[in-house]
Amino acid sequence: AAEVAAHGREMLRRVRAGQMETKEGVSLLQVRSLSLLSYLQDLALLVGTKTRGGSLNCPGGARERLMETRVVLEKLRPLEQRLKYHLEKLLRAATSGGRGAEDPLSFRPAPSNMAAQDDNEDDDDDEGQGGGAKAPGLGGGRRYVPPRLVPVNY
User: Fold this and answer.
1) Are 112 and 99 in contact (CB under 8 A)?
2) Where is the composition biased (Gly residues) (predicted)?
3) How would residue 74 be classed by pLDDT, with cut points 50, 70 and 90?
4) What SS3 class is residue 134?
5) 72 in Cβ contact with 30 (< 8 Å)
6) Bridge partners of residue 134, in order along the sequence
7) Which residues contact 46 (CB under 8 A, 6 or more apart)?
8) Which residues contact 47 (CB under 8 A, 6 or more apart)?
9) Who contacts 36 (Cβ-Cβ below 8 Å, separation ≥6)?
10) Is the dihedral of CA 16, 21, 25, 27 positive or negative?
11) What's residue 139's pLDDT?
């Protein structure tokens, strides 16, 4: 408990000194890389203690920190899976300098293509139904007339 409190005080000192940026919170990637580093350090300490003939229950608490770090890494895995597409997209944009043509999010509707550009389209079959009145603000387009429901025998 004293070690955790000391670690917390050290982090607080670094934040107040401006050594750690916290305006946008801690990055998921930063947490992952620091957790992996801590895991490897504790694992090296534990293996070194074991090779010298020591016990796995070393007084430094490396075994407990290993278990805690492993739990943190396991909890991060689903978050990484959810953000995998976005991270890969950001990495592609950073390496290629822009958006790729095969990016599914780049296919968006063009409003200019949605407006009727030609009045001579093949909509002649419903001219008698709607009266051909012009809707205000559509620039000469006809009013929408829904199709009539025709009973169908099965």
Assistant:
1) no
2) 129-142
3) very high
4) strand
5) no
6) 142
7) 56, 58, 62, 63, 66
8) none
9) 73
10) negative
11) 55
Tokens of 41: 């350090």
pTM, rounded to two decimals: 0.47
In the DSSP assignment, the letter for residue 142 is B
Q: Alpha-carbon distance 30 to 21, whole Å?
A: 11
Question: Which residue has 């139904």 as its token pair?
Answer: 129
At 101-145, the pLDDT tens digits run 666 666 677 777 776 655 555 554 444 444 555 445 555 678 988
Place of tokens 């895991």: 39
Distances (CA, A) of 87 to 27, 40, 80, 83: 12, 24, 9, 6
DSSP 147: P
Distance CA 112, CA 133 (A): 23
Can you list the alpha helix ranges (DSSP code H) found in 52-130? 62-96, 111-114, 127-130
Q: Which long-range contacts (CB under 8 A, 24 or more apart) does 14-22 make?
A: none
